[in-house]
Design goal:
With 152 residues, this protein is an all-alpha fold. It has one domain. It is 84% helix and 0% strand. It is built from 7 helices and no strands. The protein is extended.
Length: 152
């Protein structure tokens, strides 16, 4: 069989089963899902501030982040996050909730391999590249800022 015909049939098949979405529609969904996630996080922070005004702003921000991460992990475990992600795309993965979902998903997927070699190793195989990218790009941004600001 000719490879080009086989490849064309495969491309036709992929096109037939791939959902058709418009760019503007996808951007709109990502915007409102991401915005809603951030608004909910702000609401959680405001509730913490109202309940515990004696805590400093930094501590309230930390508690808010931990709460949103815990909610995202619970949503992942119960299968709600996948539904949100299908609708919101990048809007669900760019906030901190997407990072929590990635870690929880990897942990759940490989739990049969054991606590150490399954859950822990796979969870950190997702975290590692994210942390490395964060450190590298933060350093690049710092160097650029230092150069623009005039150096030492």
């Amino acid at each position: 069989m000719d490879k080009s015909k086989r490849n064309q049939r495969y491309e036709d098949y992929v096109s037939s089963v791939t959902p058709k979405t418009g760019t503007l529609h996808s951007l709109f969904n990502a915007f409102w899902i991401g915005g809603l996630t951030c608004a909910l996080a702000q609401g959680v922070g405001d509730i913490y501030y109202a309940l515990f005004p004696h805590l400093g702003k930094d501590l309230i921000v930390n508690y808010t982040s931990m709460t949103i991460i815990a909610i995202a992990i619970l949503f992942t475990g119960f299968g709600f996050f996948d539904v949100i992600a299908r609708k919101g795309g990048a809007g669900s993965f760019l906030p901190i909730t997407g990072f929590a979902n990635a870690m929880a998903s990897a942990s759940m997927e490989f739990k049969t391999e054991g606590l150490i070699m399954g859950t822990s190793v796979k969870m950190f195989s997702v975290v590692g590249p994210v942390v490395v990218n964060g450190v590298v790009w933060s350093a690049v941004a710092g160097i650029i800022h230092w150069l623009i600001a005039g150096g030492a």
